[in-house]
Every structure is written in structure tokens, then in C-alpha cells.
Amino acid sequence: MVSIQADTVEEYLSKLPENRKESFLEVRQMILDNLPDGYVESTTWGMLSYEVPLEVYPETYNGEPLMFCALAAQKRHLSLYMMSVYQNQDQHQLLLDAFTELGVKPNMGKSCLRFTNSAKIP
User: Domain for residue 43, yes or no?
Assistant: First the structure.
């Protein structure tokens, strides 16, 4: 797995490969448009992370903000990490149904959705 090392969101975005930039920015905007109030965008583990800040929910098991989802540019694809969807059977089924409706077979890992083009995700 290749990750982009950046200290800020702006730096991360500036390092996106040109062949992934448009789809990445489309998915990022979709996340930002639907991000619950109080959640923040940051860089963590070589990707953009959307988190519940400690000011909102300070009692985490590791003293770190709770990750809601994350978006990463990998060597061969983009990855959208959505643990909350994978842990909830109803949400997971909604996602699978949306792929069926779109006519696209999902490329899913244990906690991520891999894609090369934003048109291939619901």
C-alpha cells in the first residue's frame, strides 16, 4: 500500500496523482457535503480522515479521535474506509443494494471500498 505523507489536508491534496485527482476530489466533496456537524477533516495514517474530535467525544479507548471514514489515494486505486458501514448489517446491505442498482460489482476489502472512478460508486 502506498500512502501520501502530508501534514495538512492542503498538502495531501497537492500531492494527489493527476490520474486520480478528479475522482478523489468528487468523493471528498460528497463526504464533506454529508459530514455530520462537529466532525473534522484531517490527515491521519497517510490518508484524509473524517473524525469525531476529542472535544466532542473525549472518552476513546486510545485517546485519539474516532474515525468516521477515510479516503486514500493508493498506487492502483482510491480507497474509501467506512468501518461504520461494515459493522452495521443494515447499512452494509444498503451499500450493496446501491451497487446492484448502479450495475457495478463492488471491490471491497475488510474495511474499505476500492475504486478507480467515482462514477463506479453509489
Answer: yes
- Range of the structural domain that residue 92 is part of: 9-116
Would you say residue 28 lies in a domain?
yes
* Model pLDDT for residues 2-39, shown as the tens digit of each residue: 679 999 999 999 999 999 999 999 999 999 999 999 99
Tally of domains within the chain: 1
Please give the grid coordinates belonging to residue 54: 476529542
- Classify residue 2: in a domain, yes or no: no
Q: Three-state SS across the chain?
A: CCCCCCCCHHHHHHCCCHHHHHHHHHHHHHHHHHCCCCCEEEEECCEEEEEECCCCCCCCCCCCCEEEEEEEECCCCEEEECHHHHCCHHHHHHHHHHHHHHCCCCEECCCEEEECCHHHCC
Answer yes or no: is 1 within a domain.
no
Q: What would the pLDDT profile of 58-111 be if each residue is shown by its tens digit? A: 999 999 999 999 999 998 899 999 888 878 889 889 999 999 999 999 999 878
